[in-house]
Amino acid sequence: MRFTCAAMAAILLAATAPAASPVDFAGTWKLQDAGPKDRGPKTVGSIVLDLKVEGEAVNGTAHIGSWPGEAPIAEGKVDGDRITFTATGHLSSTTGIPTCQFVATLKGQEMVLTMTAIRNAGGPLGPGMHYEYAGKRQ
To answer: What is the DSSP letter of 112?
Structure first.
């Protein structure tokens, strides 16, 4: 196979071009319930995320409404234009302390997030229940 000088230059340019810049999730985000009216849990009208990103790892704190409350982020990772992580609150109730899974993407300057109860869940955060939130970096 023969390459012309122009073809070879194009191949070299593509190989040395910088990769697309990663999506920037780091910072403090305030998200509000974005689901159908009166569907979400009353104790989680808003979520504040304090995110730290190092490479493909995500950590920090999720403030999940008034209950289950402040929760350290675990199992956090960046996957292209989305992040995933889990968080277990610290405030107990008659239904327990749920662990929730979060999946977030950026649409322009807005974060869109789905929260799903996955462990020790009950009440409005029953197993498999999921809720939508949206908001901006603070």
So the answer is: E
In a domain, 52, yes or no: yes
Q: Which two tokens stand for residue 47?
A: 């979520």
Task: Report the CATH number at residue 105.
Answer: 2.40.128.20
Query: DSSP alpha helices (H): ranges in the chain?
Result: 5-16
pLDDT by position in tens, the chain (length 138): 555 555 555 555 455 444 444 679 999 999 999 987 767 788 899 999 999 999 999 999 999 998 889 999 999 999 998 999 999 988 887 777 889 999 999 998 999 999 998 887 677 777 788 899 999 999
Which of 30, 41, 49 lies closest to 131, judged by CA?
41
Of 44, 52, 24, nearest in space to 116 by CA = 44
Return the structure tokens found at 121. Answer: 């869940």
- For residue 93 the two structure tokens come to 């109730």
